[in-house]
Amino acid sequence: MTPIIGFAGYSGSGKTTLLEKLIPLLKQQGLRIGLVKHSHHNIDPDKPGKDSYRLRHAGCDQTLLATKSRHMLYFEYTDLKRDEPALAECLAQLDHNQLDLVLVEGFRDETFPKIEIHRPAYGKPLLYSNDEHIIAFTTDEIVQAKQHCKLPILDLNQPQDIADFILTWLGTSKTKQHYCPSCGEASLAFQPPKVFCCDTCDFTYFHNAAAAVLAGICYKDEILVATRSREPGKGMLDLPGGFVDPDESLEQALARELQEELDFIVHDAKYTASYPNTYRYKNIEYKTCDTFFVITLDEKPALKARDDVEKIEWIRLQDIELNNFAFNSAKQAIQRLKDQASK
């Protein structure tokens, strides 16, 4: 999942105004920015009488309006009892392969990293004292804030300072000191999306994608899924597998991972496809290439959930909800199996 950071504050605090200033500053650093904004209003950006409006209102559940420079995807939800959208649901609708950072406006009660925006003159209560996921506090009254807030305090009127904080949080700030492993000078600068260059000795490091393996272990119309016991994606579903170790082939990595996680011995695994993925662990983002192997069984073996697997279960392919999975690569792999089963 792409790193996300939110902006929490009451209506009128200036969230949209701040984001409007922040986005160009982050874009200047080469970051590809996504945005999720929550609204309580019934918004229809389409114009009555336009072809897309007419086709949507004819009854389409989803409509994609495609042009050379822009795609607009509409989802229609007609259930009057439907709850307000969850952030995870909205994030799942973005193409994370095309993003480096997602900014979120709203969803202040959900658990994800946020910056609080507070204007004392508005008389609204503070949020950070009841939300451990708020990582910084931005305000137009810095002196007053220092009397009560122990979080990093940022000047609401200095968007560059806020952008620098976000870049440092991401670990991609060009002003952050990185020491060159070749000459030892503090002159190693990150150039998104993957290159570190030393301004002193011209040393260059390419932070390329890491190889990983996924296993689709299938029995009849069921597939084995695992619940993750660790971050990232703790408590969410995943396919068994993991990273390829140095000097290891894909097949060797698959055999090792399945033994470590399931106490399962691989006899016949068929390579099927590969998918790009993003794995963020302890604030470090790893771009991976996840290779997908399918293992077809004649009978269900006795398996044990071990290592970073909390539990395992067999689920019918047709009953799987892709949004319950932690990573896009697993979603794509399972969708491939679903498509094949439907033919």
UniProtKB/TrEMBL annotation:
SUPFAM superfamilies: Nudix, P-loop containing nucleoside triphosphate hydrolases. GO terms for molecular function: GTP binding; hydrolase activity. The keyword Hydrolase applies. The keyword Hydrolase applies. Residues 204-338 form the Nudix hydrolase domain. One of its GO terms (biological process) is Mo-molybdopterin cofactor biosynthetic process. It comes from the Bacteria. Keywords: Hydrolase. Its cofactor is Mg(2+). This is Nudix hydrolase domain-containing protein.
